Every structure is written in C-alpha cells, then in structure tokens.
C-alpha cells in the first residue's frame, strides 16, 4: 500500500468514533484542551505498542490464529464495559476528571481493535532476511504517529469547544451519554467477535 493510500485509510479509521475518541472528547469537555493534552501521548503510546508488536513480532504468528484475535476483541469488550460503568457512576467534571486519565486512555487504545486492523491489514510487515525489509514499516509508523496526534487533537478540541458548555452545566449527562456510547461500542465488538454482526 502506498503512503498516500495508507494515510487516507488510517485517517478515516482514526476519525471514526470509538472508545478512545469518546474518552478524548469527554476529557476535552471536562478538563479543557490544555489540561487534556497529555492524553494524546497516552493514545499514541497505546497504538504504537500494539502496532509495533504486531508488525515486528506477531504478524506471522497471528496469521493462522483466529482465536488470538477473538481473545483480544473480548478483552477489549470487557475493558470498554468497565469504562462505561465508571463513566456512568462517576462522570468526569471540571473539578474532578475522574475516570479519564492517561492510564485509561492508554489501555483503551492498546486494546482498541483499530490497532489490530492497522497493524495486521494496513501496515507493511517488517520482513527479516530481505535487505531493508526490517525498516519497511518505519515511514508508515512515522506517518501514523503524526495522524494519531492530529486526530486526537481534533477530538480533544471538539470536546473542549463543543461539549464543554454541556459538561459544565450537566456533567452527569455527558458521563451518561459517553457511557451509553461505550456500551454500544462494546456490544458491537462482542457481536463481531462471536459472529453476530
């Protein structure tokens, strides 16, 4: 896949609402853009660890192991449901961003199935035994990193500029709406994992 085609595919995938993007938008609303900026690094680290592991180590092993993908999807489902429960029962506020910290964003991103799609389907694998083969994914990883930062900043800005007035007036509403979206994402993940969707 060429770099421009890769960039377009990754950009569309990253812009799609999902658990990480939901957390970023709510964090932007609860904390404001400046205070939520460290979450961009947490998201980037989560994706890079997942994708680098897939590209450099696991792609050949996972190619014939559908059970491994099922386990990751089910683990993702459980994590997203736990986040939904935390957001429902303890919604973030301007004074207490609570459930949305760097660790939560990191783990959510690390378990995000988007990382699997990018690492196994879009990113070229590191090929050993071929001159330059190990370095083949490096330009893709650099471009991916830039796109993650751009999209994360977009979601944080959306939360800070669009959702913040609702978050200040009614933090319970933001937490519960975000929790509801996360439950829908979890149901979608579980449905795809067991073949219902």
Automatic annotation (TrEMBL):
One of its GO terms (cellular component) is plasma membrane. GO terms for molecular function: amino acid transmembrane transporter activity. It is a multi-pass membrane protein. It comes from the Bacteria. Its main location: membrane. Keywords: Cell membrane, Membrane, Transmembrane, Transmembrane helix. It is found in: Cell membrane. GO terms for biological process: cysteine export across plasma membrane. The chain crosses the membrane at residues 44-63, 70-88, 100-122, 134-156, 168-191. This is LysE family translocator. It comes from Rhizobium glycinendophyticum.
């Amino acid at each position: 896949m060429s770099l421009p085609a890769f960039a377009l595919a990754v950009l569309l995938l990253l812009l799609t609402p999902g658990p990480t993007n939901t957390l970023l938008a709510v964090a932007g609303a609860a904390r404001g853009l400046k205070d939520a900026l460290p979450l961009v690094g947490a998201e980037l680290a989560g994706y890079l660890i997942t994708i680098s592991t897939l590209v450099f180590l696991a792609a050949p092993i996972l190619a014939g192991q559908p059970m491994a993908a099922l386990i990751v999807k089910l683990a993702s489902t459980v994590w997203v449901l736990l986040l939904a429960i935390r957001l429902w029962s303890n919604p973030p506020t301007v004074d207490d961003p609570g459930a949305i910290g760097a660790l939560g964003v990191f783990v959510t991103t690390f378990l995000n199935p988007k990382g699997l799609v990018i690492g196994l389907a879009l990113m070229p694998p590191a090929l050993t035994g071929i001159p330059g083969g190990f370095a083949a994914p490096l330009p893709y990883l650099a471009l991916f990193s830039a796109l993650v930062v751009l999209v994360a900043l977009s979601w944080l800005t959306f939360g800070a500029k669009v959702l913040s007035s609702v978050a200040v007036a009614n933090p319970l509403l933001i937490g519960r709406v975000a929790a509801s979206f996360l439950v829908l994402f979890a149901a979608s993940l579980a449905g795809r994992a067991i073949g219902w969707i």
